[in-house]
TrEMBL record:
Signal peptide annotation: none
Family membership: Belongs to the short-chain dehydrogenases/reductases (SDR) family.
Superkingdom of origin organism: Bacteria
Taxonomic source organism: Paenibacillus cellulosilyticus
UniProt protein name: 3-oxoacyl-[acyl-carrier protein] reductase
Alphabetical list of Pfam families matching this protein: adh_short
Keyword Phosphoprotein: no
Length: 249
């Protein structure tokens, strides 16, 4: 791959805030072309875009429902019209779900599966062809430690993230001959709005379970995503790497 890093384009799904926004800013620090996808968080996406532009990046925000193949195709066409063809795809979009399996409705099951798994499948399928043609590309899936260990009262969420990990391992083997790597980053507890369901005492108790004694910051997850995207990381593929402060081993 002869293209210099600052000329590469990265698409981050669910990039308006939290881990996604931190990933966008990490790539923006290298003055790469940044595409921030969002569904409804228009203002948050624009604020993240402004922060990326202040770092010197060319940035585009774009909205699409990733559960719809037609909307992803329209998104891809808009990007191509702007000359933005992703060299790096970060599948970060997802939703959490809390509750006992006995209380999960069929509609909830289908909805979370669509957001967390179907969207990753469709987005990857529709954006990987140019990577294959140029014999360089990076697909990085943002999973969760619960996809490896499972979590009580998070069976549905854990199942989707476990599926993401299996998708990562299988697709890595499929795309390796084309020079495209596929990896997953499976964070532990990260200090984002996803932890807002916990009160202060619950957060303190959770922190005490983590050997490092604290939650991860989003930019710490972003640094690993960035590392996996580098040309010199070409021999790392099919891996599920869990930055979790020693919580799960």
């Amino acid at each position: 791959m002869s293209k210099p890093l600052h000329e590469m384009t990265v698409l981050i799904t669910g990039g308006s805030r939290g881990i996604g926004a931190a990933i966008a800013q990490r790539f923006a620090a290298e003055r790469m072309n940044i595409i921030i996808h969002y569904l409804q968080s228009h203002e948050a996406a624009n604020e993240t875009a402004r922060r990326c532009m202040r770092l010197g990046s060319n940035v585009m925000t774009i909205s699409a429902d990733l559960r719809s193949k037609d909307q992803i195709i329209r998104m891809r066409d808009k990007l191509e019209d702007r000359g933005l063809i992703p060299d790096i795809l970060v599948n970060n979009a997802g939703v959490a779900h809390y509750g006992m399996l006995s209380d999960v409705t069929e509609q909830e099951w289908d909805d979370v599966m669509s957001v967390n798994l179907k969207s990753m499948f469709l987005t990857t399928q529709l954006f990987m062809a140019p990577m294959i043609r140029q014999r360089f590309g990076r697909v990085i899936n943002v999973s969760s430690v619960w996809g490896q260990s499972g979590a009580s009262c998070e069976v549905l969420y854990s199942t989707t993230k476990g599926g993401m990990n299996a998708f990562t391992k299988a697709l890595a083997k499929e795309l390796a001959p084309s020079g495209v790597t596929v990896n997953a980053v499976a964070p532990g507890a990260v200090d984002t709005v996803m932890l807002d369901k916990l009160d202060s005492s619950e957060k303190q108790a959770l922190e005490q379970e983590i050997p490092l004694g604290r939650f991860a910051q989003p930019d710490e997850i972003a640094s690993l995503v960035y590392f996996l995207s580098l040309p010199e990381s070409a021999y790392i593929t099919g891996q599920v790497i869990s930055p979790n402060g020693g919580w799960m081993t």
